[in-house]
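Suppose a colleague, Dr. K., hands you the sequence of a protein chain of 454 amino acids and asks what its three-dimensional shape might be. Before reaching for any lab equipment, you can write down a predicted structure in token form. Begin with the sequence itself:
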Amino acid sequence: MKKYFLQATFITCITVLLFSCQKEDGLAVKENASSLSARNGELMGHLKQTKTFSSDVAIKWMTMQVRQMTNYPPLVGNVAYSRHYAYSGIALYEAVVPGMPAHQSIASQLNGLTGLPTTEPGAAYHWAASANAALAHINRSMFPSATDAHKPAMDSLEQSLMAEYSLETEAAIIERSVNFGKAVAEAVMNWANTDGHQNINNPYVPLDPTKIGGIYWTPPAVIPVHTVQYIGDLRRMVATSGDGAGLPAPDYDNLPAMTMEVVNARPEIGTDNYFKAFWWRDFPGTSTPGHYVSILRQVLSKEKPSLDVAALAYALGGIIDVDITISSWQDKFKYLLARPFNYVSVLGIAPNNLLGAPHPEYPAAHATLSSANAEAMAHIFGEDYAFTDSTFYGMATPGGALQPRHFNSFREAGEEAGWSRLYGGIHYRPSIEAGFWQGRKVAHNIISTLRFRK
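The predicted structure, expressed as tokens, is then:
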């Protein structure tokens, strides 16, 4: 496995030794430097870098976030959880990056993020405590309607970590760290509230009414009720992430052959392709963005990297997840292509409707989102990083309980996720292939634009 992208040469903090000289009997008497250093430590605390803290705080909050996504009152459109992933990752990164000497804030590179607080010069911070405060605040804000059973769970996690960290350093350092982390999260949440998410489920009005009943929903098919139809209008995280990522029109003329391929791809119950379709169904379950958070959590739990690695991976994955969602939905509602299970009524045959989906078909969102997220994780952990995904281990299906799935790379997992939608009966092959391209394009736009390192 390649070394983590984030790892840098360890830089030791050098304490400036203050001394004074006095003339006594013609001799220069210097005050003991070590006593002055100790006294300075009492006032400011020992300066520690983010890399000296474990990623446990991130792992525990990712576990909590996936639990919230699983049990939260249903959002209309599970892909909307991409926002929760992204804003949490950004809040975490910005709450700990001052303790990462080789890295910098990315606020000025993000689309409209301003007002972040700064740390006190020369003051010590407990970066895990700062992360805990930031993640607690951003998750409470992102899940305001959490169930009565799960609101206390967030409080309990924050308090238990606070009690642990309070034993590790002085109360003044903990207070300073908590105040900074919470202030970062408040600034990020203020930014999040202006991204346009309040309008993503406004009543749908097609831009081109002539497509309804024509190319899109051919009679006697019935136009469905869409979800998150305007999520493509969200503000991008990185303003230029969609440059050159738009897709050409789908092959409307080839719909009969494309549909028959999907129908014939329906897997037998209990086969591997059958289990692939259910493994990547994601919702109900974790949500699709939640599945990516779950995979990241499992990788961090296995590798046990330092907090800086976790913060970078969480931020990059979430940012890419939001912006590829925007690109995908812009094209979905630009081209308004019918699903295979809608079009079969024209052909007069039985559909392969193992799964369902309430929005236009092209491009395949699982292909776009999964391939984009795979690029983010490969960038951090390496292109050939092998892992086992246990997110849905034991979940019941008509063909039996799901078993963990092993992958030789993140890209392999992303491609399996995309092709699973062919077996599930909801995507054409060309839509999946176009989705892979679009996902990688948006991811590479972001990776080549954002500068995390100084």
